[in-house]
Model the fold of this input.
Amino acid sequence: MTDFAHVTGLAGRVRLVLAPNTAAVLHHTLTGVAARLAGSDRRAGVPGRRLFPDAYGSRRLSAGFRDRHGAAMRAEVAAAFSRVLATWDGGTELDLDLAGARDLRLALAHAQTASLRQPRWKAAGTGPFAARWGEERTAVWLQDLESHVATAALARGEVPVFLEL
Done:
């Protein structure tokens, strides 16, 4: 079976057509991370320091920033996962407006948290030729898909943008 993700952007819409296995793996990944964000699975929770980069060079100031803003940032990420999963049942096609594309991008970026040993902004081996183990390859794939969705969301006018992964 061939896995693929076709991402098309046209005039403010983003459409994904996925191979059945690709759709199943992506839906399973997003569902699993959403459960971790809610703290409802055995690996309960994802620490804020893994979800969001330091806001300052100082660990103390960054911890203070997370104390003040972390709950609201986490709630927005969790809400984006919920909106994506509420509109997509894991089928092979997903048609999004720009708000839906934003939610999917946010979910794809934060889904990497579950696939990396370090926070995604510190992970060294996340290039397509540097990824060494399965979870790193998953993170690279999520990064590439997020990039394709972002590019497709920028499509304007009558000329479609077609990307394949």
About this structure: Strands lie at 5-10, 13-18, 93-97, 161-164. The longest strand covers residues 5-10. The chain is about 50% helix and 15% strand. The longest helix spans residues 59-87.
